[in-house]
Amino acid sequence: MKLELQDLVKKARQSRRELRGVVVALLVLGCSAHLAFAHSTINVLPSPAPAPAPRVVAITKSEPDAALRTVHLPGAWMPPSRRGCVRTARCNATRRVPQPSRKDAEFAASLGLGDDHTARTLLEEPPRAEWVAAVGSTPVAGMLWPVAEGHFGRGVGRTRQRPLSRIPHEGIDIAAPVGADIHAVNDGLVAYSDNGIHGYGNLVILVHADGTTTHYAHCSATFVVAGQRVRRGEIIAQVGATGLARGAHLHFEWRRGPSYRDPMPFFVGAVLRDRTVVAVGPAIVGAVD
Ligand SMILES: [Zn+2]
Predict the structure, then answer these.
(1) N or C terminus of the chain: which is more exposed, having fewer CB within 10 Å?
(2) In the chain, what are the domain boundaries?
(3) How far is CA 126 from the centre of its chain?
């Protein structure tokens, strides 16, 4: 009987030791599992983005060249109103665009340039390869600031005020007096010069050698015709407030079909007024009022 009791006590001690062993094993397993989980969590975290490299903008002498400042006023203007754009409530625009010569009109038509369909297509598709080839010059990096008298007003993106704050602004606004000259930012082929696109008023669209297009909207008048080649710096239009515009400004877009880009970091050269630099590439943002 005594022996049996001693056996029982021994077995109880042994099973307690085994239980302690199981608990310790469980604890070790739990810790390693936790560590493994923690490790895997660290692995999926994205690595921090590298700091953006500082952007250097070359300040060159004021462009464009004086030779390109000459305005080639058209010999004749198109009729001031057109079908669908007669009511000012719809277009808010006095049509002021040149009448192309017959030869120019035929050339533009042979390339499929100049009509409202062309303008709408260039908001949705990149320019055709033959239009890009017809620019006839090699791409030049950087763009000229298009209005020497202009001040940066509104940028690209969700920069509008309510109730339009959800609609992205696909270009930049450059405030300037009515009649201020608008220069081509690069060599280009005129794809459109008319006022048939709702909201844009008198509008010029240029196709460039790098396959991008630039759009100059709300002009008081345009001086170029579709199919014409223009040089970097050439005066192509004047600032106005036609189309959906509150006050005189140039609405400028830089695009490749449906994708539009912020042009601000790509402007080069200085714009002078009274021998004072008022605009230099990206430095103009927020610096001029
Ligand atoms: Zn705008």
Answers:
(1) N
(2) 1-43, 66-284
(3) 14
- Which amino acid is present at 195? N
Q: What DSSP state is assigned to residue 260?
A: E
- What are the beta bridge partners of residue 279? 271
Ligand 1 centroid – CA 173 distance (Å) = 5
What's the gap in Å between 252 CA and the centre of ligand 1?
7
Superfamily name with CATH number, domain 66-284: Glucose Permease (Domain IIA) (2.70.70.10)
Beta-carbon contacts of 132 under 8 Å, excluding residues fewer than 6 positions away, are 207, 208, 209, 211
Span 160-219, pLDDT tens digits: 777 677 788 999 999 999 999 999 999 999 999 999 998 899 999 999 999 999 999 999
pLDDT per residue as tens digits for the range 212-255: 999 999 999 999 999 999 988 889 999 999 988 889 999 999 99
Q: How far apart are CA 214 and CA 211, in angstroms?
A: 10
The percent helix, strand, coil of the chain (3-state, each to 5) is 30, 25, 50
User: What distance in angstroms lies between residue 172's CA and the mean position of ligand 1's atoms?
Assistant: 6
